[in-house]
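Bench log. Compound arrived from synthesis this morning; before running ITC I wanted a structural hypothesis for how zinc ion sits in the protein. Inputs:
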Amino acid sequence: MESSNNSGKTYWGIDVGGTCAKIGCLTNDVFRVVDTISTGVDCEPKELLAKISELILAEDVKPAAVGLGTAGHIDKRAGGVVRFSPNLPLWNGINAGEILRRHLKVPVIVDNDCNVFAIGAINSGRIPSEGLWLFITLGTGIGGTIINQGSIIYGTGYSGEFGHTTVREGGVPCPCGSDGCWERYAGKKALEWYYTRLTGQKASPGEIAALASQGKVSALETFREYGRWVGLGLANLSNCFSPMGFFIGGGLSTTINHFEKSAMLEYKKRCKHKWNVSLLENSPTAGAFGAASMVAKQC
Ligand SMILES: [Zn+2]
């Protein structure tokens, strides 16, 4: 975290995910997690945000600002409206920023969870603030953030939805309404499907990774197939952006040692750019930290 003139002020960060919300605060560059609240598909946004606001005010009589990160399309220009939330359907159309501002009477910034994670990594120096870099999260879906000179490129607001670029016309249907989206081929379900198709058995990514570590041929082939799709998508992005390199995060990123080689071979087949892919380590609280760090820098 860069030193700033925010001495003594407390910035709050909220990370609302499909299973839980994490709330933490950043004071004098020290971050601590204050609470975790369960969410889920039936999570009612107004109730949850009221509860979080109460919690913040009980801990802090004078919060400086509040940042919120959540999955989906976030309309920042409208003050933090959740336009489309795949895992929290009741949040669609909710102005989360306005609700928090009403309760807390402080500046609030809402952003997409992948962007918030990247902002935390930029502010803590883990993503360089010079040059153009792409941050990709590989998990249930694929998130993306475009970082140029330490700032995120938003376009009209929603840049970086790399997971929904088409890699196979007429391919696997996607909940977004399209088909053949990259995340249908390089997301968690795809990895599991490649294993099932080969073995007739079900296994989680962690189990497949453990089998690959033991040298099980079917698990190794699963990761080779998975890696090909990761490499294909990264080659498309390199051809579009010519980035300095990629940072990879998300649940599947920790299995990169099993798929990096096949991803790189596929990538080199499809683009002329250098392979420069680094793992950006996840921590369960990185989202809440990123949200707090975002408002510490911008408010
Ligand atoms: Zn899609």
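What the model suggests: The pocket of zinc ion is lined by residues 164, 174, 176, 178, 181 (CB under 6 Å). The first strand starts at residue 10 and ends at 16.
ITC booked for Thursday regardless.
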